[in-house]
Structures are given as structure tokens and as C-alpha cells.
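Hey, can you fold this?
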Amino acid sequence: MTVLIPDSLPLSETNLHQLLAGGSGCAPGDDCDLGPDNQTSGWWFYFNSTSDLVELN
């Protein structure tokens, strides 16, 4: 509920909870899942990324 859409986008001042199914918004149904602890309900986002190794001095 605290993740807000940036002002630079058309739905500014809207949070993700209002847009995702199962939240307080317009989408019907419920897309919430249980988290890795098998108890916490919410929307889980998984991102894949690739990068090069950066060596720290």
C-alpha cells in the first residue's frame, strides 16, 4: 500500500494496492499468493537480471 506510482506516470498518486487484483482497486478476483514462509499473503514479484562482476577495492 505504500508503493506509489511516480508523478511522471498517468496514474500518479495511486498505489500498487489499488491496481492489483485482490487489492482495493478495479481488478476483479484475487492474485495474492502466500510468501516463502507459507503464511504471509501478498503479491510477490520476481525479477531476473544479469550483470558483470564488479571488483571492490
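Oh, and this one too while you're at it.
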Amino acid sequence: MAENDRPAACAIGLDVGGTKIAAGLVAHPTGAVLARQTVPTLPRRGGEAVLGDTLGLAESMMAEAKRRNLELLGIGVGVPELVGPEGKINSAHTLEWQGERVLASFSSLAPAVVESDVRAGALAEAMFGAGRSYRLFVYVTVGTGISSTLVQDGRPFAGARGNALIMASSPFTVECSSCGTVLSPILEEFASGPALVARYNRHSSRKVTRAEDVTAAAEEGDDAAIDVVRSAGEALGNSVAFLVNVMDPEAIVVGGGLGTAGGPYWDSFVASTRAHIWAESSRGLPIQPAAMGADSGLVGAAAAAFHKLGEGV
């Protein structure tokens, strides 16, 4: 990059997931990732160890910003947890980070915000990606977990308590009309990446460890994989269509490793979504993969810092 093209300001984006922690130096106002670093999360070590590693990444990015002579506007931290309006983490599903101490820890380095990862990803798509041309869209992320958020006028909707993202974690209780058996299926345990692995391993003599192995086997004609992938896509489509029926968005944007993988999972999901949308005028709405790819979390976390710290783009 030429010296005179170098951006004047940036923010640090931290995408803390169950598998890895990704850090990036993100340019303001373009959203370009200027530098990046990734380390494994290893959450079983406990919250303090993961927090220490994440703070270390932030400090490394701060040093890089200083080396490049960039103004650091702040730090954005995206987490796979429930996050309240003031940045308080209200769950410990993946990370033992409940409470206000995480925001305080990062704020000791620079002005900081903490946001849920799905809203961070949605913000990245709204500002720089597939959602830019829509005033109202639903963002869904499918990977280790499944979450969603409504984005209106470029801003993800958080709800009264920050909990408006749970689309796949609660049971959907139904009774079989033939035998009377009561079932309580949970979408995340049926259609997420780990669910594909677990379901395939129960029905196949071949054991796999990654969702990519299951989707690849389906594309190769493996009957067990085809059934697992098809039914998972159908279940996801049913739930996303419910969101469409309730919220009436212009479009659906799908992120996450599994959500952007394409292939039979995507085809089954799209067909099922359209089949379960009630209004004929909504049935043909755009359904498209997120454009930011693996950078959506860290770019979105930095974008949250731009917005909440007074540098909206």
C-alpha cells in the first residue's frame, strides 16, 4: 500500500469463537482488513485463559496500528453469547465470560464495545457486504451454532435485553398425531455443523469429525450423508421461513461456515425456505450467502466499535 493511500484511522476487531479467536486491524471507513492474527480458543482452559489470549491479540494489533502510524478509534469484541445493551455478557454457553469484567478489561486498553457475534456479522454485511442494498433484511449465521437477527436501516435489532438472536436453541415441542409421542426437537442439535457430524456418525460406519466431511460425502453420493444434509437443510429452511412470515424482510443473508458452503445443504435450505413461506409475494425474495466470508466477525466487531464509539460510516 502506498504511503499516501494509507488510511488515517482504524479499529481492532476481535471475533471470539468456540474454535478460534480472530483479530484484525480494520480500516475506517472502508472496512478493509489491514492485518490479522488467529489463535485457537481452547475454551476448556477456562474464561480467564481465553480472556488473557484475547487481550494479548488486542495488544498485538495495537502495536501494529502504532507501527503503521494509524489512529486507533477503539476495540470491538464479538462473542457467541447473549450480550445486553451495555455490553454485559449474559450467558456462558461457549465462553465463561459472564458479567461486565470483559468490557472493563478491554476498555483498560482503549475505548471498547462488546457485541454478540451474530449482530457483528450482520453489521459487517449491512455496511460492506451482501446487505448493503437492503433497508430490511434477516441475517442468519450457520456454523457451530445457528443464530439470526433482523437488520433495519443498517442496524441489527437487539431487542429489549439483547436476546433477539435465539432462533435455534430452544425446543419446538410437538405431538405425533399418529402415536401420541411428544417430541422436543432443537434445530441447533439437528442442522448445525456439529449436529451434521453427530447424526452422520450415528448412521454410517465411516466416522468423521467435521461438517465439511459430511457435506463432501453427500456430494459424492453417500446415502447416509445425503439424508443428513437434506433433512438438516429442510429443517433450517422451515425456521427461516417462519422468520420471513413474521418479519417480512426484503432478503435473507446467510453467513457462517456451513451457511456459505453451498452444495446440497444450501439447495435443500433454499427450497425448504421458499416452500414454507406463506405469502406468495414473499416467496421469491432474495436468499444469498454473506459476502464477507471468514472476515465477517472481526470486520463486524470493528464496525460495532465505529458505530458505538461515534465514528459510524
